[in-house]
Structures are given as structure tokens and as C-alpha cells.
């Protein structure tokens, strides 16, 4: 079943929306109608780990800091700060609950707290950049067509993904690339339910935000054993829910 908020949460959403100033879905580029929502392939039983804006996973690794993302070199500032709680100067994650729509408890995000990454960095990885117009299903859609050589534009940033775990369905937007691999087009876009190329973190095929961790009911706050099924979904196929309280529409920030 899809996630269903309590009535009390719905009564509070208008107030929350006024505070966050961003309750509407992203506008259609240049007024051009989107094509009918596609039905994308489902990827099943995929290990999903948890990451969060402001996390320093490994200060020695090129991809070990979530103060920046593949598509936003100022991600921490763009988001509005640590997506969690600061403990002894470190940005740590926290348990999220339905009581406030799985939002962080001590800060107000400027962007959608329902975010994730997938192992296809179409902007910075040379192999992914070279093939993106051929493998990304929406590369020919209005707003995307003709931008294959534009190094300031990503086909992945802000795209919607549907995630399901144990009968619960939630939605999030792509805001980073990983884990471990950055040009895994066979897994990300393939129709044969291929396994991720990544071998680290128990073979994880994506990282999800604390909001998605809570919404999906992960057993681990920051582990590598929770599994999900997922697929891309076009804007027109995203239902109302807490993931639409703030919708990220920002472009690439270099």
C-alpha cells in the first residue's frame, strides 16, 4: 500500500507549506506539456543504505562528504544545513517519524528531504556523460532534448523515483550519484532487473535520505541490510504526500 499520512498531519501541512514556501510540484519547462507518464522497469530486492546532507562519511575519499553532491557543489548550503542533528561538531542522522511528515526535527530544509542517489553520474563521470543521451529514457523529452553536450545540465538531478518496502511506497528525488559506481547504466536503466555493479556496502544499489529511511520503515537507522524495490516515475505519476511538501527544482550548482 502507499504511505498514508494521519489526518492531524494533513491539518498541519498548510502551515508547514507557508513556512517552507514551496508546496507546488515543479512547473513544466517552457509551458510544454509532459508526455504521458511512462511505466519504467522495476528493480527488485536492492540494498539501500542511508546518507544525509552534511554527513562526512570518509574525509579521505573523493566521494566521502555529503556537504556537496555530484550535482551541487554547495549542497549543504542549498539544502539549508545539516539534515539531522549536530553532535560534537558532526552532522549525524536521526530517526524520522510520521508525526511531522518525516522532516528533520531541528532545521527547516530548503529542498526536498526525500532524496536519494543512483550510480549514474551523467555530469561528472566521462563514460556516463558520453552515453547519457542514448541510455536515459527521457533524454528526448521537452526540457532535456538537445542538451547532451551541456556540462551545466543533468538528466538525473530532480528526477522522481518510487520506492517500495514491505508493502509501503514512498517517493523521492535524485540529488546525488552513487554508491560506489557512477556509470552503471545496465542496472539503473535496464529492463532485466540487473544487479548493481557496486560490491561495497553489501552490494548497495542506492543511498536514501533519513526521510525515506523513516517513511519506508527501515530497520536500521544507518545500516546496509534494508532492501527496496524501485523504479523511475514521471512527474505526472507522483501522488500527493509529504515528499511534495517541498519539491526540489534547483539546477546544477557548480
From TrEMBL:
<feature type="signal peptide">
    <location>
        <begin position="1"/>
        <end position="28"/>
    </location>
</feature>
<keyword id="KW-0732">Signal</keyword>
<protein>
    <recommendedName>
        <fullName>Lipoprotein</fullName>
    </recommendedName>
</protein>
Amino acid at each position: 500500500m502507499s504511505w498514508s499520512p494521519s489526518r492531524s498531519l494533513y491539518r498541519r501541512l498548510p502551515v508547514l507549506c507557508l513556512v517552507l514556501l514551496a508546496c507546488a510540484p515543479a512547473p513544466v519547462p517552457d509551458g510544454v506539456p509532459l508526455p504521458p507518464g511512462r511505466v519504467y522497469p522495476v528493480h527488485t530486492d536492492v540494498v539501500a543504505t542511508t546518507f544525509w546532507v552534511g554527513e562526512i562519511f570518509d574525509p579521505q575519499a573523493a566521494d566521502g562528504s555529503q556537504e556537496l553532491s555530484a550535482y551541487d557543489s554547495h549542497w549543504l548550503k542549498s539544502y539549508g544545513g545539516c539534515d539531522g542533528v549536530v553532535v560534537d561538531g558532526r552532522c549525524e542522522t536521526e530517526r524520522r517519524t510520521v508525526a511531522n511528515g518525516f522532516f528533520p526535527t531541528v532545521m527547516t530544509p530548503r529542498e526536498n528531504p526525500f532524496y536519494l542517489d543512483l550510480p549514474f553520474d551523467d555530469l561528472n563521470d566521462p563514460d556516463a556523460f558520453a552515453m547519457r543521451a542514448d541510455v536515459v529514457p527521457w533524454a528526448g523529452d521537452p526540457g532535456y532534448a538537445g542538451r547532451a553536450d551541456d556540462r551545466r545540465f543533468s538528466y538525473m538531478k530532480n528526477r522522481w523515483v518510487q520506492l517500495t518496502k514491505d508493502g509501503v511506497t514512498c517517493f523521492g528525488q535524485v540529488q546525488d550519484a552513487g554508491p560506489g559506481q557512477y556509470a552503471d547504466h545496465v542496472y539503473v536503466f535496464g529492463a532485466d532487473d540487473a544487479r548493481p555493479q557496486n560490491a561495497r556496502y553489501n552490494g548497495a544499489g542506492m543511498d536514501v535520505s533519513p526521510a525515506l529511511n523513516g517513511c519506508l520503515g527501515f530497520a536500521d537507522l544507518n545500516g546496509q541490510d534494508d532492501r527496496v524495490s524501485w523504479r523511475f516515475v514521471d512527474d505526472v505519476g507522483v501522488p500527493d504526500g509529504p515528499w511534495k511538501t517541498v519539491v526540489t527544482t534547483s539546477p546544477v550548482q557548480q
